[in-house]
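Figure caption, in words: inputs first, then the predicted bound structure.
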Amino acid sequence: MSKAPQDSTLSPSDHARLWRRVDKSDGCWIWNGARGKGYDTYGRFNLRGRIIRVHRLIYEILIGPIPEGLQLRHRCDIPYCVAPWHLIPSTGAENMRDMAEKGRGAGRFSGATHCIKGHELTSENTYIFPSNGTRRCLTCKRAKQAEWNRSHTWADRMARERERRAKAV
Ligand SMILES: [Zn+2]
Ligand SMILES: [Zn+2]
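Bound structure (zinc ion present):
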């Protein structure tokens, strides 16, 4: 990822283009322009052919340079929020820990090594949802299933199975 340029590299028309897409009506400043796909939904800004992460760009414009090697962690958990006071410079490791604690992050972007209950996420203990690639701790998933089994009667299970079948048809 290229470094965000200093404010001075933005022309007045770049500035206009940038701020036109920032919705400041709420507590968060929501970026209404292009966003990344999949798990990387950070706002993106095209500056003379270079794709830049908007939250970094705006942080550098309004607050100052981001210390070398640091990422900006979203306090509000909205990747496409660009409000500088919602951004905390932090190391990648801190960022990963934060994501793991909040259960965010998935697939190859997830750095979580343990689930929220402290089970290690080895390949044997990780379930990956086929639909979206989200990772889950298998131990917790099984425990939840067991809990469900305990709290539901056979009739409940049959009903659920019928529902599932009806959807599949
Ligand atoms: Zn925010
Ligand atoms: Zn677990």
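The first helix runs from residue 12 to 19.
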